[in-house]
Amino acid sequence: MFKRIANSVLIALFLAGVTSLATPAGAQQGTPPQAKPYLVEWVYRVKYGYQDEWWKLFQKYQIATLDREKELGYVNSYQVVRPGLHTSEDSRWDYRIVIAYRDQASASHGSEVEKALFPDIEQRKHEENRRWELTENHWDLPIHEIDPHTAD
Predict the structure, then answer these.
(1) What's the CATH number for 2-21+37-143?
(2) pLDDT tens digits for 75-86?
(3) β-strand pairing of 38-46 with 135-143
(4) What angle do helix axes 110-117 and 64-72 make, rounded to 10 degrees?
(5) Cα–Cα distance between 29 and 17 in angstroms, integer?
(6) Residue 99, beta-bridge partner list
(7) Nearest of 79, 60, 146, 140 to residue 107 by alpha carbon
(8) What is the pLDDT of residues 83-98, one digit of tens each?
(9) Fewest CB within 10 A of the end CB: N or C in the chain?
(10) Where do the structural domains in the chain lie, given as residue ranges?
């Protein structure tokens, strides 16, 4: 129950920030509304004792790629979080990354950006394979902001 509430609070805080990014402060009436950001959450559980190695590899490839996607305008923002306390093993996670892409189509550019940033395919493949060896569980979850005051 606590985990569900904590996750809801985390997502709500992030979405509040994303929503403010989606609407320019000086937006005038009559301008077409901007597309809602496409939100995706990446969740990782790492083998015990390997979090430092895993994180260094993740920073090298995924964080660098997200930073470049942000520079190119594909990503509005992203947030990386770790748990502050522990949970039961069946619900344990080590890293959550919530990404606000400009729109759904923008989420498809990660691979091309990564190839441009890291042209040594063999090294990238070797190090990414190692990161996946250290990953016990992973999921990508598109998440949708809903208005709590409507029937949706």
Answers:
(1) 3.30.70.100
(2) 999 999 999 887
(3) antiparallel
(4) 110
(5) 22
(6) 40, 78
(7) 140
(8) 988 788 888 999 999 9
(9) N
(10) 2-21+37-143
